[in-house]
Amino acid sequence: MVRKRESIGRREYYIGLGTVGISMLAGCLSDRDDPSDDSEASSSGENSDDTGDDVNEAFELEDDDETMLTVHLENETGETVSEDVRVTIEADDRPIRYIIEDEIEEGVVEPEEIDSGSYAIMVEGDDIEAIEESVTLKEGEHEQLTVELQGAAGDAENGETMLTVRLENEDGEPVTEDVRVTVEADDRPVRYIIEHELEGGIAEPEEIEPGSYTVTIESEEFDAVEEDVTLEKGEHEVIQAELEGVTGDGERSEEGSDDDND
């Protein structure tokens, strides 16, 4: 029975070849008789190629799906936290660890080229207690995780600490010349002396840190003036100092112009 089936199979195969040969011959004769079939075949071939390209493109798009993890860091008020914090992402089943500290922007942490799998996430900082989270990443998916850091300073608070001292006379004119501004910390040996860097009656010590300071304004034209100020982290404090009887920049400019005319 087995051999019989094999012989039948061979006969059918040869018959099939004969039929194909006859069909090909008939097709060639038909093509010679009707030239218009060439253009139809050509256009059909082009459409077939386009369809193939579309299919290939679809497969490429599917292959481009990237496995991603985004960790959002916020404090209890919803402000983003980017400074003084470190994020460690460690795989549970293989020796892979990401440590992200200086690359945090706007409270967003995104490890590069992370693979699918289970990970432990550790968030640490000087002002917060360590927080642990776990996450499982699936192939081609983008997982997002928000971690709330109780007591952490938000990015708005972590802005630059600044002090601006505006010097004016009683007429509201800026005072720049013949004046010295000293900014001295109350609890540590830090002192800023600003004298020749005054422009437009404005004194701004560079890179000043939070804390309590005594601001002293001195000149030969008036008695020393003192102001106390406390700078909070990330705040910009402005002191308006009115110096009575002092020649303003506008008056000095007029006096200089009169001298030139004389």
CATH architecture field of the largest domain: Sandwich
Bulk shape:
elongated
How many domains would you count in the coordinates?
A: 3
How confident overall, as mean pLDDT?
77
| Secondary-structure element pattern, one letter each | HHEEEEEEEEEEEEEEH
Helix coverage percent: 25-40%
Distance between the termini: 134 Å
Find the count of extended strands (DSSP E, 2+ residues).
14
Please work out how many helical segments DSSP would assign: 3
CATH class of the largest domain: Mainly Beta
User: Would you tell me the structural class of the helices and strands?
Assistant: alpha+beta
CATH superfamily of the largest domain: Carboxypeptidase-like, regulatory domain
User: What strand line-up does the widest sheet have?
Assistant: 3-2-5-6
Oligomer: single chain
How much is the radius of gyration in Å?
Answer: 40 Å
Residues in β-strands, percent: 35-45%
The biggest sheet amounts to: 4 strands, antiparallel
Low-confidence stretches: 1-26, 35-48, 58-63
CATH topology-level name of the largest domain = Immunoglobulin-like
